[in-house]
Amino acid sequence: MKKTEWLQESRLMQFEETFSYWQEKKLTQEEAASLLGVCSRTFRRYINRYEENGLDGLIDKRLEQVSHHKAPETDKIKVTG
Hints:
Blueprint: H1 3-23, H2 29-36, H3 40-53, H4 73-80
Helix pairs in contact: 1-2, 2-3
């Protein structure tokens, strides 16, 4: 598992735990946001995405994209060949 995948998984687990405490009124919105290291507005956005799409709504789509700085395969062959 790559470091980015591990970090994403741990962030999702941390959100679920914090979200459940917030729903049980054990934490305020500001406290929950602080635990996650985000502002309260970002926490509200997370809540909306979580309620609409579940955990899939919180996945960082940028991690799935190939970098536009990556060299094309044909260039790699020329350099190494």
